[in-house]
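Quick start: load a record and inspect it. Here is Facilitated trehalose transporter tret1-like protein:
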Amino acid sequence: MDRGILRQTLIGFVCSILIIDCGLHEGWSTPTIPKFNNKDPLKVTTDEIAWIVNLMYVGVGIGSLVPFILMDNIGRKGTLLVTTIPKITSWLFIGLSTSVPLIYVGRILAGIGCGITYAVMPMYLGEISSKRTRGPLGNGDVSCFELVINVQCPTRFLASY
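Running the structure step on this input writes:
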């Protein structure tokens, strides 16, 4: 195998991790909502559940505007690296939350990270890939996203949170 193709494939795999995280965030609410309704110590109303689910997409709207500022200043790769900050922080807020507003903040941060990822990753992969690998690398993110969503939903029966 050509060393350049191997390197491009590895970069595509690493970028797919960002998409996998977006899939985890988008699919997180489906198995979690029944947990909030049943036995979770954090009491959540129906309206709060609606906000928990939808605030991520508010963050996606905000996050899709951020790359216009960052891409030309720190480059596509640097922008993708910066994306990890709101993504990791969002999981910390969600996982360690003791109140609903902390979950709101976590979901907005998740959306910002995913909005940046959705805007920048296709451009970055298009820039680093050759004609031969551009198609498979471009489709890999969609495949990873769908796979994560389909695997995550049945796990609600196995996981406690």
